Amino acid sequence: MPIQIIAPAPFVTADDEGDDEGGVRLDFDNDGDIAMDGDAPRRAAGRQAGGIVTPGEVVTEDPQWMRGHGTYLSQPLSGGSQSIISSLAGTISKTNKLLSIRALKFRYVPEIGDLVVGRILEVQTKRWRVDIAAPHSATLLLSSINLPGGILRKRTSTDELQIRTFFSEGDLLVAEVQTLSNDGLASLHTRSLKYGKLRNGVFMTIDAGMVRRMKSHVLTMNTSNGGGEVDIYLGVNGYIYIAKHTTPLTESGGPEGKSVSITRLEEEASEAIYSNVNEDISPETRAEIARIACVIGALARNGVKVDEEMVHLGYEAALEEFLQGMEWGGDGEAGKRVVDAALAKRREG
Amino acid sequence: MEGLRNDGRRWNELRRIHCQLSTSSTNADGSSYIEQGFTKVLCNVTGPAEPSSRQKVKQDAATVSCEVYFAAFSGTDRIKRGRNDKKVQELQTAIQKTFSSVILTHLFSRSEITISIHILSQDGGTLAACINATTLALIDAGIPLKDYVCACTSAQSTSIFDNEGTTPDPWLDVNYLEESDIPSLTVATVGDSEKIVALSMENKVRIEMLEGMIAVGISGCGKVRGIMDEEVRRHGKARLEAAME
C-alpha cells in the first residue's frame, strides 16, 4: 500500500483524504521498496485540463508522431516503444505529424527580417556586439551600417578607428536581422533610413512573445494634450522604444516632401543620424510618451498581445479614464482597468 | 494530544504550500514565489543568455549558475550572510548541481541560465523550498525541464521509542523547531517518480531508519508536485484566457 501524504490543511476537505486515523503506515514489499501508486491519475487529469501540458507530462505514446520543440523522448521501454514527453508548460501544436509545445513565455529567437531594438554591449574592431534579448548577443558589422556621407562611400580604416563615433557601449538602436548562422547567431544591419540610433525617447522591455508580428513595427501616433507625434518602435524581441517623432530631413534638407535627390538625402540624413544629443522634448510630449509606455506595459502584463490596434485602443482608454497613479510597467489596478476598457472597445469594433 | 506534532500536524501532513508564478515584473525571464509554512522564498531566472564570463562558456550545453541570498531578517537571529558564507555556498552548489541534470541544457549551447534566489523567511526546509521555487521559475521562463523537480524534508523522531522494536513513523516536512531537534533530510525527486536528484542530510541517524525517511520524503515530493502542477495549470489557463480576448 502506498504512503499516504496528507495535503496541507486549507486544501483538505473532510471527505477527500479518506481515513482520519493518522494516515497509513509504511508497507514494505519483498525487496524492501515501498510501493507507490502509479502516475496514471495525474496524466489523466492533465488531459482534461484543456490544452495546457506541463513538464514531465506524457503527450502521446503513439509512435506515429514525431517530436518537435518542447518535447523529449522517454527512455525506451522493454517493448522498444518510446513516448513523447513535454518539457515545457504550454500548449500543444500539431503540424502534420510533428508535435511541439509552445511555451507560455519564452525568450526571443531571432528570425531573418525581424525588426529588433537592441543595446550595444561591446565595441570590437570591425563590429559591435548587440544585446537583443536572445540567448546570444547579435553582431552588427561596421559594413552593415549606413556610414555618414552617403551610400556610395567606401569604408576606410579611418572608420574602423572611429567606430565609437557611430555607436558606443550602451547606445540603443533599431535594426533588422540580416542573417542567421547555423547555431542561431544573428547578424544585424541598419542599412536603411528607417533603422539606426535611437534617441529622444524612453526604452522599455516586455516579454518577447507579447509583441504580435505585424507588417510594420514602427508606429507613429498622434497624441492628445499637445503631445504631438510620437514614434513607437515595437521590437519583435520585446524591446520597445518610444520617442518624439523626428523627421531627420527637416534640419537641413528642407521640409518633408520637398524633393531631394536620393544621394543628397543620404548625406543629409547621416549628419544627424549618429548624434547622441537629445532634442528638446516638451513636458507634454514626455507625459504622452510615458502614458504610451504604461499602456504597452499594462497590455503585456495582463497577457494581451501588443499590436498597432491595441496600442491605439489602450491609449484612448487611458486618456478617457484619465488615470492617475498608473504605475510604470503597467502593474496594478489602473493598468488592468485600462486593458479591460481597451478590450471592450475592440469588441464594440 | 497523542500523535500530533508541536504545530498540530500529523506525521504525514504537509505544511500549507502557497506558490505563484511570474511574480516579478523586472527583466527576469521567469520568477516565482513560494511559501511552505513560514519558509518564504523568491526566485528569479534569467536565461538562456550570453554567459557573464568566458569561463562559463560550454561549447555543447548551457551553464547553470545559482546565486542565493539570505535576507538578514530571515532567521530567528539577525545574521548577515555574505557571498562566501559556507551555508550560502552549499545551497548554491546543491541547487546548481540538481538543476544541471534536469534542465535540457544541450539545447542552449554557449549560453548561461542564472538562478537567483532570495530567502525571505526560514522555518525549516529551506533547501526544499529553494528547489521548488526554482522549478516554478524555470517553468515560468519557458526553459525545458525533464520534469518538475520537487523537494521535501522528512525527519525521524528518536524521542519516542517503541518497545516492540518497530521504528516510529518519520515526520514529513519539518519546521524549524523539529529541524533543530531531530535528524532530518531533504530529498528532491524528478516528478513523482522515485528518481532522486538531490539528497542532503546533516545529522546522524540509525541506518535502519534511513529508508523510511527517504520513502516518506519521496511520497511528500509527489504530493508537492501535484500542488505545484495545479498552480502552473491555473496560471497557464489564466494567461491563455487573457491572450484569447
From TrEMBL, chain A:
<dbReference type="GO" id="GO:0003723">
    <property type="term" value="F:RNA binding"/>
</dbReference>
<comment type="similarity">
    <text>Belongs to the RRP4 family.</text>
</comment>
<feature type="domain" description="Exosome complex component N-terminal">
    <location>
        <begin position="52"/>
        <end position="95"/>
    </location>
</feature>
<feature type="domain" description="K Homology">
    <location>
        <begin position="201"/>
        <end position="247"/>
    </location>
</feature>
<dbReference type="Pfam" id="PF21266">
    <property type="entry name" value="S1_RRP4"/>
</dbReference>
<dbReference type="Pfam" id="PF15985">
    <property type="entry name" value="KH_6"/>
</dbReference>
<dbReference type="InterPro" id="IPR036612">
    <property type="entry name" value="KH_dom_type_1_sf"/>
</dbReference>
<dbReference type="GO" id="GO:0000467">
    <property type="term" value="P:exonucleolytic trimming to generate mature 3'-end of 5.8S rRNA from tricistronic rRNA transcript (SSU-rRNA, 5.8S rRNA, LSU-rRNA)"/>
</dbReference>
<dbReference type="GO" id="GO:0071051">
    <property type="term" value="P:poly(A)-dependent snoRNA 3'-end processing"/>
</dbReference>
<keyword id="KW-0539">Nucleus</keyword>
<dbReference type="InterPro" id="IPR012340">
    <property type="entry name" value="NA-bd_OB-fold"/>
</dbReference>
<dbReference type="GO" id="GO:0000176">
    <property type="term" value="C:nuclear exosome (RNase complex)"/>
</dbReference>
<keyword id="KW-0271">Exosome</keyword>
<dbReference type="Pfam" id="PF14382">
    <property type="entry name" value="ECR1_N"/>
</dbReference>
<dbReference type="GO" id="GO:0034475">
    <property type="term" value="P:U4 snRNA 3'-end processing"/>
</dbReference>
<keyword id="KW-0698">rRNA processing</keyword>
<dbReference type="GO" id="GO:0071034">
    <property type="term" value="P:CUT catabolic process"/>
</dbReference>
<dbReference type="GO" id="GO:0000177">
    <property type="term" value="C:cytoplasmic exosome (RNase complex)"/>
</dbReference>
<dbReference type="GO" id="GO:0071035">
    <property type="term" value="P:nuclear polyadenylation-dependent rRNA catabolic process"/>
</dbReference>
<dbReference type="GO" id="GO:0071028">
    <property type="term" value="P:nuclear mRNA surveillance"/>
</dbReference>
<dbReference type="InterPro" id="IPR025721">
    <property type="entry name" value="Exosome_cplx_N_dom"/>
</dbReference>
<dbReference type="InterPro" id="IPR026699">
    <property type="entry name" value="Exosome_RNA_bind1/RRP40/RRP4"/>
</dbReference>
UniProtKB/TrEMBL annotation, chain B:
<keyword id="KW-0271">Exosome</keyword>
<protein>
    <recommendedName>
        <fullName>Ribosomal RNA-processing protein 41</fullName>
    </recommendedName>
</protein>
<dbReference type="GO" id="GO:0071051">
    <property type="term" value="P:poly(A)-dependent snoRNA 3'-end processing"/>
</dbReference>
<dbReference type="InterPro" id="IPR001247">
    <property type="entry name" value="ExoRNase_PH_dom1"/>
</dbReference>
<dbReference type="GO" id="GO:0071028">
    <property type="term" value="P:nuclear mRNA surveillance"/>
</dbReference>
<dbReference type="InterPro" id="IPR050080">
    <property type="entry name" value="RNase_PH"/>
</dbReference>
<dbReference type="GO" id="GO:0016075">
    <property type="term" value="P:rRNA catabolic process"/>
</dbReference>
<dbReference type="GO" id="GO:0005730">
    <property type="term" value="C:nucleolus"/>
</dbReference>
<dbReference type="GO" id="GO:0000177">
    <property type="term" value="C:cytoplasmic exosome (RNase complex)"/>
</dbReference>
<dbReference type="GO" id="GO:0000176">
    <property type="term" value="C:nuclear exosome (RNase complex)"/>
</dbReference>
<comment type="similarity">
    <text>Belongs to the RNase PH family.</text>
</comment>
<dbReference type="GO" id="GO:0034475">
    <property type="term" value="P:U4 snRNA 3'-end processing"/>
</dbReference>
<dbReference type="InterPro" id="IPR036345">
    <property type="entry name" value="ExoRNase_PH_dom2_sf"/>
</dbReference>
<dbReference type="InterPro" id="IPR020568">
    <property type="entry name" value="Ribosomal_Su5_D2-typ_SF"/>
</dbReference>
<dbReference type="InterPro" id="IPR027408">
    <property type="entry name" value="PNPase/RNase_PH_dom_sf"/>
</dbReference>
<dbReference type="Pfam" id="PF01138">
    <property type="entry name" value="RNase_PH"/>
</dbReference>
<feature type="domain" description="Exoribonuclease phosphorolytic">
    <location>
        <begin position="13"/>
        <end position="144"/>
    </location>
</feature>
<dbReference type="GO" id="GO:0003723">
    <property type="term" value="F:RNA binding"/>
</dbReference>
<comment type="subunit">
    <text>Component of the RNA exosome complex. Specifically part of the catalytically inactive RNA exosome core complex (Exo-9) which may associate with the catalytic subunits RRP6 and DIS3 in cytoplasmic- and nuclear-specific RNA exosome complex forms. Exo-9 is formed by a hexameric base ring of RNase PH domain-containing subunits and a cap ring consisting of CSL4, RRP4 and RRP40.</text>
</comment>
<keyword id="KW-0963">Cytoplasm</keyword>
